[in-house]
Design a protein that fits this description.
Pfam families: HAD (PF12710). It is an enzyme of class 3 (hydrolase). By secondary structure, the chain is of the alpha/beta class. The chain has 10 helices and 8 strands. It has one domain: HAD superfamily/HAD-like (Rossmann fold, 3-Layer(aba) Sandwich). The strands form 2 sheets. The protein has a 6-stranded parallel sheet. α2 runs antiparallel to α3, α2 crosses α5 and α3 packs antiparallel against α4.
C-alpha cells in the first residue's frame, strides 16, 4: 500500500516536517530513520552478504548460517539471542578480509537498496531534508553499508551502523564500537553526532527493539510495526504508517 502525501501529512504532524523556528541560534532539527523494513523491504545485510559471496570477498560457506538467520529476520524478526549469534557469525566471516573490496561491494549494493526505498518513506526523507533537518539512517547493519545507502539516498543524509574494527586495512573480527541494536543505537548515535537534544527529534522505526530510540525522541513514528511496536504505538497514540 502506498500512502499518499496528503495522508502522510495528516498522520505525521506539520511541526515534525517543518524547519525549526526561532532564529539561527536554535539547534537544527533531527530525523532518525531505521533502515530494514522501515525504508525498504527485507534485510540490507542479507543483500550485502550475498553480494560479498558472489564477489569472492567472503567465502560462501561462511555465510550459510548468516543467510538463514537473515531469512528469519525478513520473515518475522529476530530474538536478542539470535541477533547476538548473527553478530558473532558475521564478525567471524569478515575476520582477515580487506576493507577496500568490501567497501566497493557495499557501494554497489547501496545504490540498489536506495532505489527501492518505499515511496512514502522517500517523501518523508525529502520533506525532512527540505526542512533543513539533520537526517540520519540508524541501523544494526554494517556502518559501511548504512553510510553508503545514506549517501545514495542523498549526500546530506548520514549513516550510523555497526562499526567493525579495522587494523592495517583488514577487519579483525571484533567491533570497534557497541553493536548498533536496541539501546546501543542511542550510544552509537551520540558517538557519531555528538550530544543532541532528542526531545525535538523525530524517529521512524518498525521494531520493538527500537523502542529505546523511539521513546528517547520527542516525536516517535511506527512504520510497518511488528507486534510489540504496534501494541505500544496504539497504547501511546503514536502515528503508525504502513508502506509496501
Amino acid at each position: 500500500m502506498t500512502v499518499e502525501p496528503v495522508i502522510l501529512r495528516s498522520m505525521v504532524s506539520a511541526a515534525q516536517l517543518s524547519p525549526p523556528s526561532g532564529g539561527a541560534a536554535q539547534a537544527t532539527g533531527l530525523a532518525v530513520f531505521d533502515l530494514d523494513r522501515t525504508l525498504v523491504r527485507g534485510s540490507s545485510l542479507a543483500r550485502l552478504a550475498r553480494a560479498l559471496g558472489e564477489a569472492g570477498v567472503v567465502r560462501r560457506k561462511d555465510l550459510v548460517g548468516h543467510l538463514v538467520r537473515e531469512a528469519l529476520f525478513a520473515a518475522r524478526g529476530l530474538s536478542p539471542r539470535a541477533i547476538e549469534q548473527l553478530r558473532a557469525s558475521l564478525l567471524t566471516a569478515v575476520a582477515g578480509v580487506e576493507q577496500a573490496p568490501l567497501l566497493e561491494v557495499a557501494d554497489r549494493v547501496a545504490v540498489s537498496i536506495a532505489a527501492e526505498v518505499f515511496t512514502g518513506a522517500r517523501w518523508l526523507l525529502d520533506r525532512h531534508i527540505a526542512a533543513g533537518h539533520d537526517v540520519v539512517l540508524l541501523s544494526s547493519s554494517p556502518h559501511e553499508l548504512v553510510q553508503a545507502v545514506a549517501t545514495a539516498i542523498n549526500p546530506v543524509v548520514r549513516g550510523v551502523g555497526t562499526r567493525a574494527e579495522v587494523v592495517e586495512g583488514r577487519y579483525t573480527g571484533h567491533l570497534s564500537a557497541p553493536f548498533c541494536h536496541g539501546r546501543a543505537k542511542l550510544v552509537r548515535l551520540e558517538q557519531e553526532l555528538g550530544p543532541r537534544d532528542l526531545a525535538s527529534a523525530t524517529a521512524y522505526a518498525d521494531s520493538g527493539s527500537d523502542l529505546p530510540v523511539l521513546r528517547a525522541c520527542g516525536s516517535p513514528v511506527a512504520v510497518n510495526p511488528d507486534r510489540l511496536l504496534r501494541s505500544v504505538a496504539a497504547w501511546e497514540g503514536w502515528p503508525t504508517l504502513h508502506f509496501s
